[in-house]
Design a protein that fits this description.
The complex is a heterodimer of chains A (500) and B (490). With 500 residues, chain A is mainly alpha-helical. Chain A has helices at residues 5-21, 28-57, 88-105, 113-132, 136-145, 147-157, 162-190, 198-208, 211-228, 237-244, 247-272, 274-300, 305-325, 330-361, 372-375, 377-391, 397-410, 417-443, 449-452, 460-478, 481-498, and strands at 64-73, 78-84. Chain A has a two-stranded antiparallel sheet with strand order 1-2. In chain A, helix 13 (305-325) runs parallel beside helix 17. Chain B has a two-stranded antiparallel ribbon with strand order 1-2. Chain B has a domain at 290-490. Chain B is built from 20 helices and 2 strands. Classes of the chains: A mainly alpha (500), B mainly alpha (490). The interface between A and B is medium-sized, with 32 and 34 residues.
Chain lengths: 500, 490
């Protein structure tokens, strides 16, 4: 490849961050537009990448736009090695889009503006890197690099309990990562010749690992990824981080960071350790089931709108885990990818909308509002749209993904999966329960004119950043074929790898 | 013994630095102690010239195998010079206010101690090793007590003197036992004689075990490895901050190289699988584990930044010893590399603490509140150093930890590596606590901190070292691998 598009995707935000360092810190407008520019370029590149991949390469399961392997630390056999296939392209698309949207959504940040955007761009570099890296060392570096800007973003610009939320997020994820590091080192020293090349290890690892070591590595990888997803019972950092984080950071957390967990499973532990995947299929599906039901029940009990959306993430990522348990079904894995994309779009949008309301009303108590539809028709329309998408109304992306997950998991032929899937369908009802109740209490009913008479409608900037998410949600709902075609060859290959 | 070979060319750097220390003292006295900065710059220049001399005059053995100017010694000498350079660079504020009447001696003693470290790292023989160790520590006793009018500083000096003398005696006793059983003080000969002893007798007696235990205890005192760490926090807190930094990097590196020379070279025979129950590796692994646990957990409760860094440095030595007990080429290289990255991060963190203390007179963590607003560059440096100490990529500390843990896994010390990783999560909490205090809380925002150019240089070296060698560790790693190759390990 002559044009190293992946390197550009990763390093343009970094260059932007360095560039921002040299801008005067009181020129807010300049800083905002500069950072918007440095996230706009990777977004366009990620769109182009998706387009190019779809039309030229999506027929095969190979990796494209490869760069490297270039020797980086020869003693450790660490290489600079990038490449993408059908499961990383949608993630890069999502990252590019949501990063730009979040940066524009952050234009209302008024304190320590320069630092904020520097950290945000560093975060984008880390996220892009994770989805491109094909070398374990590189993957791990990007995986960890993100924690620091995230820590600062929550800790400096967060809500009242920001310090607690920030350190909890940092500790929790670092705790997970260290297990991944052990697993990586075990894989490295078990392979002969020693390698950190993920593609090579996917081919050879099932051959050289004993049953016990496979289970060991699987469990260690699983802890790292499960904390990121987050899978019940590793989810407790999520409500704190989500609720305390500033709006745009919540969007990135829900839209991209959570996906890194499921992406890691699909990219690394599932194909590399197929025996262990089969061994743990049922426990994983059960964890997914618990997540779906538990997340939904806890959402029901929330009085804070942002917390409700945060717990709904636990529930929605549960669908991903359920489908990941059904490793033998192409439909289920496709459903998982659909759920990742659609959850990123829908929850991202919901967090943006929560932020819009919070900026005006300075409260997120559901009970404080009522009848907003009368005063804020456009806002209400969008809120209803995304709530419906979240509960899986046909015609929206949420429906497509959940449907695929259920069909795939039910028909996967793994024992007990029919029962587990049947129970998981309950989650849809519960989701409808809390989403509709929220819509009813906040948007419908009587409007409190004295208290909220001064609320203003969603402004143009906010509308512009939410509408692409709305369009994509509906587009995927009606025409899921392009997205599934893009991933089909890769996922078919993955399922074959897992059947080894 | 045919001829005694004097290849003086090999010790030119050491001789130069020794003379330079005298020059510094004389210069300060003859200039009537008026030029506070120029004495410091003179010291730094001397260290830089020594580095150049080192580059030109190394490689070879002299004084009948007592002095080996090999690549391992070279590697560690760079660390010693670096830590002395950074300690001197961050001392300028101190020298102009608090120790005006003795600044020549202050700088001179740092240089003497550095000369001791350099001799120590080159010694291939028990007696010169011991002498090097004493030359390293005796100036440090004085330096720790340099604030004569401060109770804590005098206490630090006193404590360090007593513990230091005691541990030296223990070490010396162990060394003499070793000499008694092997009939030689030459480490290479010890290695050969011990192997022969095994071959003929098939086992070793309790006397040798006692020797090993005493040597481990003696060196562990110097390294502040648990359970021989009790002196460290008080000494670290009381001593002038740049000296604390020098103690925690330079003198630890000296202990590490002494350990490597004695155990990984001289007593390597004990690592043989046949000797497994007597393997010193297991004792040291347990001590390393204890250091990581005790150091990190105690650091959690500290409110004083110097004490916090003291406990954290106990834990850091624990991590580093994982590489040592791995007893492989990768392991020894990882120890060297770890020390190198630790040099930048820890000297840097202490430099920030010094600058802050010079200005505010406080070293409690809570006084760092809101520092990111009043001194953004200083706080950013501190954050980078602390994150590197935690081991967050792409900073140097991460590469170092990764390699140490890799060596541990390779050697099959799974439990030790997992423990190390778990405790590094604990470490994140107290390092991040300082970052939190600087960045997330509001504080005295009209605090003005002017950083002396020399201290600025130290910070720049630290930050650049941590970032550049974190992203591209190849040159230092290759250097470390070359020096580890000396031991001819698997």
């Amino acid at each position: 490849m002559d044009f190293p598009v992946l390197s550009y995707l990763i390093f343009i935000p970094l260059i932007g961050a360095v560039f921002l360092l040299f801008l005067p810190k009181d020129k807010f407008g300049l800083i905002r537009w500069t950072s918007a520019f440095f996230s706009f370029v990777p977004m366009v590149l990620s769109f182009w990448l998706t387009y190019d991949y779809f039309f030229n390469f999506s027929q095969t399961a190979d990796f494209y736009y490869m760069e490297g392997p270039l020797s980086w630390i020869s003693l450790l056999n660490a290489n600079y090695f990038l490449g993408v296939d059908g499961i990383s392209v949608p993630m890069l698309f999502l990252t590019g889009l949501l990063s730009f949207i979040s940066i524009v959504a952050s234009f209302n940040i008024a304190v320590r503006v320069k630092e904020y955007f520097i950290f945000f761009l560093l975060l984008e570099t880390g996220m892009m890197g994770v989805f491109c890296a094909l070398d374990f060392f590189l993957f791990y570096v990007f995986w960890e690099v993100m924690l620091v800007p995230m820590y600062f973003l929550i800790g400096i610009w967060g809500g009242p309990r920001k310090e607690y939320a920030a350190i909890k997020f940092f500790l929790y994820t670092l705790f997970g990562s260290i297990f991944m590091l052990v697993a990586i080192l075990v894989l490295y020293f078990s392979s002969d010749p020693h390698t950190l090349n993920i593609l090579e290890l996917i081919q050879t690892a099932p051959g050289f690992l004993t049953h016990g070591l496979q289970l060991f590595c699987f469990v260690f990888f699983f802890i790292a990824f499960a904390i990121k997803v987050p899978v019940w019972p590793f989810h407790t950092w999520l409500p704190d981080a989500h609720v305390q984080a500033p709006t745009a950071v919540s969007v990135i957390l829900a839209g991209v960071l959570l996906k890194m967990g499921t992406y890691g499973m699909l990219r690394i532990s599932w194909p590399m350790l197929p025996e262990a995947t089969r061994y743990f299929a049922i426990p994983i599906a059960i964890l997914g089931l618990i997540g779906i039901i538990y997340g939904a029940l806890v959402s029901m009990a929330q009085t804070d709108l942002k917390k409700l959306v945060a717990y709904s993430s636990v529930s929605h990522m549960g669908y991903c885990m359920l489908s990941l348990g059904a490793f033998s079904s192409v439909t289920a894995i496709t459903g998982c990818m659909f759920q990742m994309v659609s959850h990123g779009l829908i929850t991202g949008a919901l967090f943006l909308l929560v932020g819009v309301l919070y900026d005006r009303a300075h409260t997120r108590e559901i009970a404080a509002f009522g009848g907003l539809g009368a005063k804020l028709p456009i806002y209400t329309g969008l809120m209803v749209l995304f709530s419906m998408a979240s509960l899986g109304l046909p015609g929206m992306s949420g429906f497509v993904s959940e449907f695929m997950v259920f069909i795939g998991a039910f028909g996967s032929g793994i024992p007990h999966f029919q029962l587990i899937t049947a129970l998981a369908v309950l989650g849809v009802v519960l989701t409808a329960g809390y989403m509709l109740r929220m819509v009813q209490r906040m948007l419908l009913g009587e409007f409190n004119k004295e208290k909220w008479g001064g609320l203003t409608e969603i402004n143009t900037r906010e509308l512009i950043i939410v509408s692409p998410l709305a369009l994509l949600t509906i587009a995927i709902g009606f025409f899921p074929a392009p997205l599934s075609d893009l991933m089909e060859a890769t996922i078919t290959n993955l399922v074959q790898l897992m059947a080894r | 013994m045919e001829t005694f070979d004097y290849n003086l060319k090999l010790i030119i750097p050491e001789m130069f630095l020794f003379v330079w220390a005298l020059v510094v003292i004389v210069f300060d006295i003859s200039s009537k102690r008026r030029n506070s900065d120029s004495v410091g710059y003179l010291t730094m220049a001397g260290l830089a010239i020594t580095a150049v001399l080192l580059y030109n005059f190394h490689g070879g053995i002299s004084f009948n195998n007592m002095f080996s100017s090999d690549i391992l010694a070279l590697f560690f000498k760079v660390i010693f010079l670096g830590s002395a350079f950074m300690a001197v660079g961050s001392s300028f504020g101190l020298a102009s206010d608090k120790i005006k009447n003795h600044r020549g001696e202050y700088y001179g003693l740092i240089l003497f101690s550095t000369v001791g470290m350099m001799f120590l790292s080159s010694s291939n023989e028990l007696i010169s090793l011991y002498v090097g160790l004493e030359l390293t520590t005796i100036p440090l006793f004085v330096l720790a007590a340099f604030y004569k009018d401060k109770k804590t500083s005098v206490e630090a000096g006193m404590k360090y003197l007593i513990v230091g003398a005691f541990s030296s005696a223990v070490l010396l006793y162990g060394l003499s036992l070793l000499y008694g059983f092997t009939g030689t003080t030459d480490l290479t000969m010890i290695k050969i004689n011990l192997s022969l002893l095994f071959l003929s007798a098939g086992k070793i007696g309790p006397g040798l075990i006692l020797a090993i235990v005493m040597i481990i205890a003696g060196i562990s005192f110097k390294l502040a490895l648990v359970p021989f760490h009790m002196w460290a926090p008080d000494v670290y807190q009381g001593a002038p901050t740049p000296i604390t930094a020098f103690l925690s990097v330079g003198s630890k590196a000296a202990g590490v190289v002494a350990f490597a020379r004695i155990f990984v070279h001289g007593l390597i025979a004990f690592v043989d699988p046949v000797m497994k129950p007597l393997d010193w590796g297991i004792i040291v692994a347990v001590m390393a584990a204890a250091a990581m646990v005790v150091g990190n957990i105690t650091a959690l409760r500290q409110h004083n930044i110097k004490r916090m860094l003291a406990y954290s440095s106990i834990a850091q030595v624990g991590y580093l010893m994982i590489g040592m007990v791995a007893v492989s080429e990768l392991g020894i290289a990882s120890v060297g590399f770890y020390m190198f990255m630790y040099l930048f991060a820890n000297m840097g963190a202490f430099a920030v603490a010094t600058i802050f203390e010079d200005k505010t007179g406080s070293s409690s963590i809570s006084s760092y509140k809101g520092l990111s607003k009043s001194a953004p560059a200083l706080s950013a440096c501190m954050a980078i150093f602390l994150l590197s100490l935690t081991g967050i990529p792409p900073l140097g500390g991460f590469a170092a930890k990764y390699i140490v843990f890799a060596a541990g896994i390779q050697a099959g010390y799974y439990w030790l590596v997992i423990l190390g990783l778990l405790t590094s999560v604990v470490a994140l909490y107290y390092y991040a606590n300082v970052i939190k205090t600087m960045y997330f809380s509001d504080g005295n925002s009209d605090l003005k901190i002017n950083i002396h150019p020399a201290a600025r240089l130290v910070l720049v070296i630290g930050v650049i070292g941590v970032i550049i060698f974190g992203i591209y560790p190849e040159p230092i790693l290759n250097f470390a691998m070359e020096s580890a190759a000396l031991f001819a390990l698997p």
